[in-house]
Amino acid sequence: ATPTALLVGTGRGAQVGILIRGPEVLESTRRVQTVLLDKTGTVTSGRMQVVAVLPAPGEDAAEVLRLAAAVEDASEHPIARAIADAAREHAVAAGAAGEHAVAVGVLPPVADFANTAGLGVRGTVEGHAVLVGRPQVFVELPDALAAELDRERAAGHTAVVVGWDGRPRGLISVADTVKPTAAAAVADLRRLGLHPVLLTGDAEAVARSVAAEVGIADEDVIAEVLPEEKVAAVRRLQAQGRVVAMVGDGVNDAAALAQADLGLAMGGGTDAAIEASDLTLVNADPRLVADAIRLSRATLRTIK
Ligand code: ADP
Ligand code: MG
Fold it and tell me: Which family does the UniProt entry place this protein in (predicted)?
């Protein structure tokens, strides 16, 4: 189904920016107890900026950025957009102290591009097999890179590793910003008696720093999960008898959105997320999550 094929549940729902797949959805909104919130694009803006390019010893920062950007140019992921844009448009800080700037300009073409949701991308650029992704995809990082990785994560930045021809060559660190209304959105959910939990494929330290900013405690953070582990997290809560809502925007969230008792897709999210969801919010304001649940409950009371 395309987003426009979604049934508009109530006149009021449409007015306030909530599309409901069908009237049967309303019933699930009444029973929801736990609300899993995806981090990137749901709680944060998902408009990431490259903050540093950190080459491994003996590697060149501009080359790390250039080859990574060539592959990421074929991806829609927020990290990919940040890297491709940085390479094309800006000079970005390189080195731990940002001691010099690199700019790349024209990106070389990529062949054999492949994207693995929640892990990263790979492709062949100028004869090199290039990999950009979650640090865990690299078996071993040089000590210097591992130390930089810890530092970037402690600063709340998401760092991805760039490697080619079987060797990690550097890190690219990106920063996201928490949406201005995210803390209020979490407070709204609590006022409805709901239990908000942050769910993300990103590193624990990054997740905790975002959680702290929006009023979610460390014990309510589930981090470093692959897309199928997001589904497992939903199932685990369901097995404990919880009725679970999941809020997300990405391809990596689609399976969890489908598994949840109530799936909510953020406005501006991917088609995959929208198609897997019961409710679609027409804009990216996370306060619409509580609004949607409150409105659906009120609509149900009116019908009954
Ligand atoms: P989230 O759950 O926060 O929305 P994702 O599941 O999309 O995050 O991504 C989890 C992790 O996988 C990212 O933090 C990153 O390390 C890696 N990753 C995913 N896609 C890409 C990409 N296109 N380029 C580099 N790394 C990626
Ligand atoms: Mg996301």
Answer: Belongs to the cation transport ATPase (P-type) (TC 3.A.3) family. Type IB subfamily.
